[in-house]
Specification:
With about 80 residues, the protein is mainly α. It has one domain. The chain is extended.
């Protein structure tokens, strides 16, 4: 019986796939494919937001100039 505690179907599928890999190069190729997939999804979502007017050059400029660092608290 296969234990699936904490893993969803997608995770289990990837684990099964990885069990057939015998070289680190194969894992790297799969990693590259997964990264490319998510990069494409981000691009598609950004295009959608741009086309719907929810993202613009002004928004990009505003985001680039935002100060997001958390100030350090100096120990005394």
């Amino acid at each position: 019986m296969e234990q699936t505690i904490g893993l969803n179907k997608a995770q289990l599928g990837i684990m099964r796939l990885l069990s057939h890999f015998d070289r680190e190069e194969q894992v790297k190729e799969l990693d590259d494919l997964i990264r490319s997939y998510y990069a494409r999804k981000v691009d598609e979502e950004m295009d959608r937001l741009w086309n719907e007017g929810k993202w613009s050059q002004e928004k990009i400029d505003e985001t680039l100039s935002e100060h997001l660092r958390t100030p350090y608290r100096h120990a005394k």
